[in-house]
What we know:
Blueprint: H1 3-10, H2 17-23, H3 29-36, E1 43-47, H4 53-60, E2 64-69, H5 72-81, E3 86-89, E4 102-108, H6 116-126, E5 127-137, H7 145-154, H8 168-172, E6 190-193, E7 197-200, H9 202-209, H10 213-216, H11 220-236, E8 245-248, E9 255-260, E10 281-284, H12 299-308
Parallel strand pairs: 1-2, 1-4, 2-3, 4-5
Antiparallel strand pairs: 5-9, 6-10, 7-8
Helix pairs in contact: 2-5, 2-9, 7-11, 9-11
Bound molecules: S-adenosylmethionine (SAM).
S-adenosylmethionine (SAM) binds near residues 53, 71 and 110.
Amino acid sequence: MEQDERLLHGSSFGAAATAYAEHRPDYAQAAVRWALEPAPGRRVLDLGAGTGKLTATLTAVGADVTAVEPDPAMLTELRRGLPDVHALPGSAEAIPLPDGCVDAVLAGNAMHWFDMAVAGPEIARVLVPGGVLAGLWNVMDDRVDWVAGLAQVSGSAAIGPRDTPTSWRAETADAHLPKTGVAARFGSPEQAEFPHGQRRTADSLVATLATRAGMLVMPEQEHEATLGRIRAFLVSRPETAHGEFTLPMLTGTPAATPIRASPSPRRSGGISDAVRAPPATRVNAKPSPRTRHTATIQPMLCDMVRASAGAPSNNNPTPSSMR
Ligand SMILES: C[S@@+](CC[C@H](N)C(=O)[O-])C[C@H]1O[C@@H](n2cnc3c(N)ncnc32)[C@H](O)[C@@H]1O
């Protein structure tokens, strides 16, 4: 995707912020735990946090989350839905946090919008040594017959190559790399898939697909025609015609792609000590060695930023999933 197109699509979500909050899926907790497993601590930056779908899953697994989101309408939804979360305006290219402030940076369905030539050094800056960068992408399981039919009818603006298990690995394997000649700040990712699903009706699935970036930037007539085709398909299929069904998202957070800032092995000590991720399909996307970066640890500064923003303190009670 060209830079202009990326900017247009990446900034399209605010126009549908309320619908996004209502209809987009959350993330499989197992995927989030897996992504956080190598992190040295619980402080997590949710980058491109949108209305807080991944943020909510992060808080549910016991992370101490800071959410950063550039779109004011999306940020308003996030603050409305998750008033106790520390949420800041900002972008991947200009992260409003001090150096060495977080143990992990996660991005849910967002890393492909970042300009990694600028965002890579920014992310490396805010991570502690040994910190983790992980992209997560929710995809729809087109190995299920009716989902494959839906993908065909919808077209790539609604269900693109990043949105199905057959192609997400190839589509996201390089998302952490700069597109220009700038040096990469992160090593090769591991990729893993985890089952997930979302309860939908024909109408609510149409509403979900209407929040895809490709749909939001589409001319109105084409937009209506595409949604009409999708609705007609869903009411024609026995699996989706009547009442609620589960949209199989085989890999709920199908792509957790941890990219280590330093080559620390998966180990005990991070957030998922208490709750281990179940086994997953793992793929080494590239056999290249991981890149090391150094960052200054300034935990006190992180606390100062929170205080100056009038945000709630870090001392969230341990959720039941961590006990
Ligand atoms: C598909 S939404 C995902 C939102 C949320 N993470 C989720 O999983 O629902 C993509 C989000 O990335 C944000 N975004 C776009 N470009 C960005 C950038 N350069 N830096 C940070 N966030 C960006 C958009 O505003 C939008 O909220």
